[in-house]
């Protein structure tokens, strides 16, 4: 402990410590091009109205984006159960968004804005972190707001339980020294902020969904496009500040963090289908057919393509172990 510890405690501070950074030689400070020049006019929190659920007659989530909905066994469910399935997927998405924003991302961007994450960044980049903090707080607000409207109008409440990514993120942190938890959250935030745009765009483009849902997701996607551009650059600043051991730790964690963010909670989906009256055998058939490992792997590769490019650019896959782990997670072709 050298007295510069902020958000992080113990030895993990070394990764973010300006004193340690002074010991690292040679690395040029990366530049920064702010994606937030038009933020005051274009941020959702400044320019978009509250999204109000206009109708409960239309689908509340695009059916083609609910993976199990296309399975013939699920197709035989009564119309009101199919409707419940789509509504629960919207609740799942809104709960995921709100908790991602206020339990993980906003802790990290506050650390960047406040300076307690001591990765050296340009002053403009620190200020922009405060804009992201504001955006994410609004995303949590509009997600909780719409979820409450859905429950009030349909009588269908969220199923409850913690989002799967949080359960797995906690399990991952538990395998490492507690002092590294802050660094893990920072790496996870880089992952989630550079993957999320693709996920959101799929929903925002849907023409079959209730308009306020599509509008809300579009609001989110536009903001996240700026966040994506920010964190692609932040990765370079972080990498320049890490020493060889810290880079090895981070490099080997990225493939699993991508999996933590993207892997669906099949157990929860299975429980939901059991609740609709499907037998255990039918549920197993639906899950096995829908979440086929090859389909999932190709989806993950496509969704993570840009992030994998950024990681490659800074040299993450120069580490043979990191490359092996990326292959094990089917993020790059196996040798
Ligand atoms: Fe967000
Ligand atoms: Fe974001």
Automatic annotation (TrEMBL):
Pfam families: AurF. Gene3D superfamilies: Ribonucleotide Reductase, subunit A. This is Aminobenzoate oxygenase. It comes from Cellulomonas iranensis.
């Amino acid at each position: 402990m050298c007295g510069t510890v902020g958000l992080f405690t113990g030895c993990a501070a070394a990764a973010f410590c300006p004193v340690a950074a002074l010991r690292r030689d040679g690395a040029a400070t990366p530049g920064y091009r702010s994606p937030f020049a038009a933020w005051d006019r274009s941020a959702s929190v400044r320019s978009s109205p509250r999204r109000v659920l206009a109708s409960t007659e239309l689908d509340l989530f695009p059916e083609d984006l609910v993976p199990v909905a296309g399975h013939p066994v699920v197709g035989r469910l009564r119309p009101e159960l199919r409707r419940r399935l789509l509504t629960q997927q919207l609740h799942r998405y809104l709960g995921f968004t709100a908790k991602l924003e206020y339990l993980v991302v906003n802790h990290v961007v506050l650390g960047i804005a406040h300076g307690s994450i001591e990765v050296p960044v340009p002053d403009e980049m620190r200020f922009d972190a405060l804009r992201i903090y504001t955006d994410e707080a609004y995303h949590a607000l509009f997600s909780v707001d719409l979820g409450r409207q859905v429950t009030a109008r349909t009588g269908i409440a969220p199923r409850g339980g913690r989002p799967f990514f949080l359960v797995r993120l906690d399990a991952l942190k538990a395998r490492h020294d507690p002092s590294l938890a802050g660094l893990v959250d920072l790496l996870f935030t880089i992952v989630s902020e550079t993957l999320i745009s693709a996920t959101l765009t799929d929903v925002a483009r849907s023409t079959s969904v209730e308009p306020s849902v599509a509008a809300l997701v579009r609001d989110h996607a536009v903001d996240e496009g700026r966040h994506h551009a920010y964190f692609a650059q932040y990765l370079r600043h972080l990498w320049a500040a890490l020493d060889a051991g810290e880079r090895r730790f981070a490099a080997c964690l990225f493939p699993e963090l991508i999996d933590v963010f993207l892997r669906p909670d099949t157990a929860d989906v299975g429980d939901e289908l059991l609740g609709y009256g499907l037998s255990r055998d039918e549920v197993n058939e639906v899950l096995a057919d829908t979440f086929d490992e090859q389909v999932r792997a190709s989806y993950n590769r496509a969704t993570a393509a840009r992030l994998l490019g950024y990681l490659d650019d800074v040299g993450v896959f120069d580490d043979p172990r990191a490359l092996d782990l990326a292959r094990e997670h089917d993020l790059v072709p196996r040798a």
